[in-house]
Design brief:
heterotetramer, C: mainly alpha, 0% strand, globular, D: mainly alpha
Amino acid sequence: MSETIWLIPLIPLLSSVTLMLVGTRLKASQVGALGVGSVGISALLTLLLATEFMQNQQVIQLSLWTWMEVAGFAPGISFYFDGLTLVMMSVITGVGFLIHLFSTEFMEKDPSYARYFAYLNMFVAAMLVLVMADNLLLLYLGWEGVGVCSYLLVGFWYQHNANGYAARKAFIVTRIGDTAMAMGLLLLFTELGTLDIQTMVGEADQTWQVGATVPTIACLLLVCGAVGKSAQLPLHTWLPDAMAGPTPVSALIHAATMVTAGVYLIARTHELFLLAPIAMTVVAVIGITTSLMAAFTALMQTDIKRILAYSTISQIGYMFLALGVGAWSAGIFHLMTHAFFKALLFLGSGAIIHCLHHEHNIFKMGGLRTRMPVTFWSFMIGSSALAALPMTSGFFSKDQILLQAYQFPEIGPGLWVAGLLGALLTAIYSFRLVFVVFFGSVNTEPDKDTGWRMAVPLSILCLLAMVGGWFMIPVSEVFPASDGSHPAHWVEYVSISVPIVGVLVAYLIFYTGQLKVDRLANSSFGKSLGKLWLSGWGIDLLYDRLFVKPYYGLANKLKSEPVDALYGLIVTINQTLNQWLSSAQSGRMRWYIASMVAGLILVIMLAANLPEGAL
Amino acid sequence: MDGLNIPLNHILLVSSLLFAIGMLGLMIRRNIIFILMSLEVMLNAAALAFVAAGAHWGQPDGQVVFMLILTVAAAEVAVGLGLVLQVQKRFKTLDMDDANRMQG
Amino acid sequence: MLEIVFFYIAATVALMATVMAMTRPNAIHALIYLIVSLLAVAVIFFLIGAPFAAALEIVIYAGAIMVLFVFVIMMLNLGEKGNKQERQWLQPSIWAGPAILSAILLIELILVISQTNGPVSVAAVSAKQVGLSLFGPYVLAVEIASMLLLAGLVGSFHLGRRYLDRDNLEKQGGQ
Amino acid sequence: MVMINLILILLIGGLLAMLSERISDTMPRKVAMVVVLTDLVYLLLCLSGMPEITQLQAPVANDPSTWLMHFKTDWIPAFGISIELALDGISLLMVLLTLILGAIAISASWTDIVVRKGFFEANLLWSLAGVLGVFMALDLMLFFLFWEVMLIPMYFMIAIWGHENRGYAAMKFFIFTQASGLLMLMSILALVAVNQSATGIWTFSYFDLLNTQMTEQAAHWIMLGFFIAFVVKLPGFPFHTWLPDAHTQAPTAGSVILAGILLKTGAYGLIRFAVPLFPEAALDFSSAAMWLGAAGVVYGAVLAFGQTDFKRLIAYSSVSHMGFVLLGIYAWNELALQGAVMQMVAHGFSTAALFMIAGSLQERLHTRDMREMSGLWQQMPRMGAVAMFFVVASLGLPGLGNFVAEFLVLLGLFQVNIWITVVAATGLITGAAYSLLLMQRSFQGQANQKWVDSGLVDFGTREMLTMAVMIVALIFLGIYPQPVLDAAQPVLQSLLNLTTSPTVAIVEVM
């Protein structure tokens, strides 16, 4: 098995290429079989691999060929497999498989069915390469690969310009982070002479002191990449717009897998970050700030997918918080559980959208509890997990994060309080969604309920979202063990009770209506605050003014090619000269004579001044 | 022919003056006839200088060149006046500027 | 002694006549001044011992060439209108610039000339001497000059004939 | 002799193609295709017969016998001018690229040339012959001759078969290249004269002129002459302004050859001549050259973003990409040089393909204005998919050739100057911006009813086959670039050895 792990990304890739080449000639059922089947096989292989790994705990390193070899720079097409990789691969292939299955029904009517699966398979392949890469350059290949797939899928319905805009925004904003990350790679290679992750961290340990400048800069550059990909402040603006893509895509790429690549990157290179405490603090601060910012924003959104998008940003903020405080395994754990419940929520919302004629506004839904029971229960479970209600998967992971954040030196309690506030908000917005959509009066009648291809993935994900918290992720070998001390019990109790309070608040406001917030909402302060939150703190607008518009302006201004004007000047000079000289050729006899005389005068003058015997 | 002789540079001075006047005429007149006349003056001034120089050295070369100049002047006037007639016929004027056909 | 006096008188006459020739609006008047100038130059030739040149000057220049001018001017029939126009053209603004240029050139020439010194030769150069060197060392130049004259002959014949062809004469007569 | 034959086949083939127009209207393109493929096969056969090819050993730069091929015969012995051709790894790569892209160019203009087809194909082949000569000539006079030979047919191609504003573009192209060619000639003569005064021997041979003794002042000026001549061709900022016009107005095959091959002659000249002939002077100049390169990267990208003309956008993207080549060359270490060579090859394919797509669009829509295109994917999904592939290739997607090139350049550059690297790296972002905009404006969005009604034809077999060649090439370069790197490595190593003489150390971190 260990020799064939390269098959796991290859199979979806081959399927993707096949679909691209001959997809239009295949029947829909064949396309579906190929698309789902390939990921299914990968999932199966991953499962086999997992069982093997659970028995022998053996790290696999497999080198296929040397990618390029120039002056000591020799990254390989080679894979590295350990517990962390296993977790990621399981999520990608497992959740990926379910989402593919879901898609066969969701996208059934789309004329570009084959193209959709081609992209989706390609994404799975790229994502697998990302997590399996044993060097940062191959990781970067996967990293950019998923970026392109994300671009293609967000802009899948290319006929609408808005989708194209969202897709480009997603790609370019993440590209900014990617470029910084590439600079990080350059720095790391220049300093350490390799990009091979395992060798590199070994070198780094020997070369650098904790807190030295170079690793700090390198780590911060990597963080830039992670921030872009994982939609954290300040590069988060693309994710809400990326919801323009088909909903299963949002579930797979923009909730479960790709956006967590940043978390994976930091976890993978955590040995470097341990050398750069400043970078870690930065990660923690970015994480918690993003988390709060996104949670406030999610409170005000009306588009079901945008709520989930901001919630994703917020949850990834928690993961960043975990990484920043050194709670590596908690971060990865949350990554996994988040993949389960957020995929569930997205697929659930996909089901709603699918059955409600592409309605996105939650206030036009309502009362769907009885009409779509499977979806309702999915949402109930998903939201509970998201809000971290006790015994759900989200509870275990988020609890771990908060507790370890509390123990972080100096700013720990502060982070904890902020995290709690986030958790409260999370509970409120997630149950706001549930109460508005599933309770109350029916505003739009669904024309159908979900078919089995939607119901099965939903059910499995429900199960995972419930019991996922009991999984033991095999990362103890990867990350340094935490010191195992526990904070005071009251900290734990508070952490547990906050989400419940949140649900209660949501219940009172959005279900019974006993808690009136109208007066606050209608006050001028409340209004402007609401507006600010609705627009995502106006960051989009700010960037538009600060970067996008000036860039367009610059391009427009330069369009006429100022450099060419320089060469135009040469032409103008020549033309002027030509005019002068040709005006001398006027045909006026007297002018000619006068100039001849002038010439004569000159000649005599020169001749007279010449020294003796020169002539 | 004895006694004081005429200084060479005085003759050359006269020649220069004649030349300058001829040239001035050449530049200020627009009528072709006058231009031709001015040319004659200038040629004549040059001829004077040659003859004077020849006389200075007591050699015949100066006069030889004078004769050559004479032929040049004759030919020039013959052709020039022919052109004058043509110009008058075509342009109904003898003004050189009006006869100008260049697009300068 | 007398030659010197004559020389200065002749020179003065030549210069003044030339100036007059250059400034007359009437072509015939100008021409007559020019003839005077040429005659004065002929006197100078005679005085500096070039009697043959003086003779040629009178015969060919003052005689033949100037007569040619007279004929052409008569043919063109410029009249009073031409005079008026000429007067109009002789404004100071027109001749100021050329005058300055000419003056500069003149000064330069004078400066150059002032370096030479010495009188002209006592003995006259006879026509025989001239003839000998013409058909001796300068024979090639003579041939060229003859060709030039031939070309002038053909050219002027060609140009003049067109002017004097029949219908043109009729048109002129008709006017 | 092999090298002479390669050039002669093209020259005579051009003549045949021109004459074959009398047989039938479609004959010239077939003849041209056969000629180029014959040339390619001939080269490959000759190579396969050589044992050296399997173990490309480091050629000693100033010892021609260590090169892959070498040919020398007298031409004008009085001035030491000879017909000297030689082939090493880099030349070989460039020659192969030339022949492959030559075939692609002929395929690209299979149908869009309607007048004087014979003469067109002849010009194309002659231009290719000139390029081959440039890549192989090692006598400077011969090099200059070929330099001119490749330009004049190109001028005709733009001036006769170009688009609406061809006269202007052709003239601009001609003046720029001619002026730079003149500069090069002057530099060559100056170099030879300097060498003559030092050694007393007249020679134009590259091998003899290496290590010419000259004063620092002389070296600087002569180097600058070469530099400008090659950078105009490259084109580097600020000498690039002929390129957008020439590319935009040239017929498809012309654009393909211009972008794919002709630009590379500039880069080749820099690597082969401008730096090795004047190592110290080039070193002194390197940071200015690198800033120019970085400026080109950014400037090209910003201008590309502002364009509305499909071809013009690609043309500016070339400016941006060739900036990386300039950066790579003047960083002058193995990583960066390998990156520059890779970029030359990869950019050859990716841009040639984009120009082909532009040509196909022009043929179908009779416009290049992207404001009139929109949603073309719907009608031409195959063309759209192919365009998408090359667009992501040109924005440097890992796994495709351009990424390897750009990353290596940046990696090498980073060791030399960090700030230039930072500036150049922004090219990756702006590159994404204009590339995706191109895609958005032409193939995505609401389909323009005008084209829906007129019924557009998607790529056919011939076009897909041509594109497939380039797609496969780019993927291959992207995931297994080693053959190209191996071919160039010994040459670059020997050049580096030649220039990094004991006292000179190039590395200067921050």
